[in-house]
């Protein structure tokens, strides 16, 4: 960008401690594995900011990680120690988005509310917001922690003490200079869409609620999906705080598949199918955790999500387990015998991939549940009817694709 061009700048503060005696600012409290500052980086990106300025007392590993994230996203990044240093980085033609320390807000709602070219101060009605940590503006309103102001107001901070609260001071300067006040709608404040986080306990509570609202279970959800969701709600917070939660869960799924193949090779197909079912639940949990991580870090979904690739590995594992189990039932290794053992399981898996494209959503979801399929095949191999069960399932899927009402095209 050429020198002198108008910039939209995000201004963040990282000064207030995360509770009495805490050594780090509350901007580095973590929700879904990402710090509040990283969530605010995603908010700044959604608002179209080209530069981020952080008020901080000094560099720290968390701040350096935030800088790398901002620069990787294409934003200029600056750290300043006090408000008097801001005037050298902000010109009068710039537009400044001020995000209060501790604000956890939905980026989509914020972008909609700050639309337009005029300065805006977002506000909340005084219906308990003061107790939640928001700052009072007048008898009826409190500051929502987010505003858009002209860069010319930054110079007026020189008239204030160097230890002033920058967000609070700029809010009052903006209102005095004629900035409009816009109320945040009630629907934008539901659940975890607009909260002020002040302590580790509040961050954990918001994280649990945030995960719950984003993992809403559908009426036709399969047993494996319900089990994966329950596991993520129970252990997801701890995993996300540990870092790379989805990656560790994916590794667990792969280990389970390897153990399943080893069990089938050693002549225990029942155990192999049980391990495959467990691995499928881990695959689904990994997908849910990765979705939460993408939202927390504002990362776009790749063309081929990791959970889909792991799902293909589960399919390959199930075919191989079936082949090993059928070989155990009918000894003898010839090319013809191997082809017979591979054909039926392979056709079943192919039909399972065709079915979701043709069947209605509810039935399509059930055909994707490899956990239930693994348990059915485990029951079949225990009773000695694995071969007929595989063939019967393949035929049943074919008939369902032909006879049942097709999926409606949107």
Can you describe what's shown?
It is a single chain. This protein is α/β, with parallel strands linked by helices and 410 residues long. It has 2 domains: 8-199, Spore Coat Polysaccharide Biosynthesis Protein SpsA, Chain A; 215-403, Four Helix Bundle (Hemerythrin (Met), subunit A), CATH 1.20.120. Helix content is 52%, strand content 13%. The chain contains 13 helices and 11 strands. The chain has helices at residues 36-46, 61-72, 107-113, 166-176, 200-214, 223-242, 245-265, 269-297, 306-329, 335-358, 361-367, 370-383, 386-403; strands spanning 8-14, 30-31, 34-35, 51-56, 76-80, 95-99, 103-105, 120-125, 141-150, 180-183, 194-196. The protein has a 7-stranded mixed beta sheet, with helices on both faces. It has a two-stranded antiparallel ribbon with strand order 2-3. A two-stranded antiparallel sheet has the order 7-11. Helix 2 (61-72) links the parallel strand 4 (51-56) and strand 5 (76-80). The radius of gyration is 27 Å and the shape is elongated.
């Amino acid at each position: 960008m050429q020198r002198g061009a108008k910039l939209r700048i995000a201004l963040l503060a990282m000064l207030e401690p995360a509770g009495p005696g805490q050594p780090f600012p509350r901007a580095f409290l973590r929700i879904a594995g990402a710090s509040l500052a990283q969530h605010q980086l995603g908010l700044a990106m959604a608002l179209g900011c080209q530069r981020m300025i952080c008020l901080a007392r000094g560099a720290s590993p968390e701040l350096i990680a935030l800088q790398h994230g901002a620069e990787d996203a294409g934003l200029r990044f600056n750290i300043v120690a006090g408000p008097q240093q801001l005037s050298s980085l902000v010109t009068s033609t710039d537009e400044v988005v001020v995000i209060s320390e501790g604000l956890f807000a939905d980026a989509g709602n914020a972008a909609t509310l700050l639309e337009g070219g005029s300065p805006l101060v977002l506000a909340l009605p005084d219906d308990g917001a003061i107790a939640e940590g928001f700052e009072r503006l007048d008898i009826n309103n409190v500051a929502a922690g987010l505003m858009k102001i002209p860069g010319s107001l930054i110079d007026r901070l020189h008239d204030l003490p160097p230890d002033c609260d920058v967000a609070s001071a700029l809010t009052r300067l903006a209102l005095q200079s004629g900035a409009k006040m816009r109320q945040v709608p009630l629907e934008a404040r539901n659940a975890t869409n607009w909260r002020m986080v002040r302590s580790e306990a509040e961050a954990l509570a918001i994280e649990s609620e945030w995960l719950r609202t984003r993992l809403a279970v559908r009426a036709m959800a399969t047993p494996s999906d319900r089990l994966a969701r329950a596991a993520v709600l129970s252990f997801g917070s701890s995993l996300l705080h540990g870092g790379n939660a989805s990656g560790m869960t994916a590794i667990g799924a792969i280990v389970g598949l390897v153990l399943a193949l080893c069990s089938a090779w050693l002549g225990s197909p029942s155990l192999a199918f049980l391990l495959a079912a467990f691995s499928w639940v881990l695959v689904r949990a990994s997908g849910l955790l990765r979705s939460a991580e993408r939202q927390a870090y504002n990362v776009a979904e790749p063309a081929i999500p990791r959970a889909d690739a792991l799902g293909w590995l589960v399919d390959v594992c199930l075919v191989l387990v079936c082949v090993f189990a059928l070989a155990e039932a009918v000894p003898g290794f010839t090319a013809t015998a191997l082809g017979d053992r591979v054909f039926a399981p392979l056709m079943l898996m192919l039909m399972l991939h065709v079915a979701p494209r043709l069947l209605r959503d509810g039935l399509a979801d059930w055909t994707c549940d490899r956990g239930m399929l693994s348990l059915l095949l485990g029951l079949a191999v225990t009773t000695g009817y694995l071969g007929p069960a595989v063939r019967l399932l393949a035929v049943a899927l074919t008939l369902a694709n032909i006879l049942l009402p097709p999926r409606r095209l949107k």
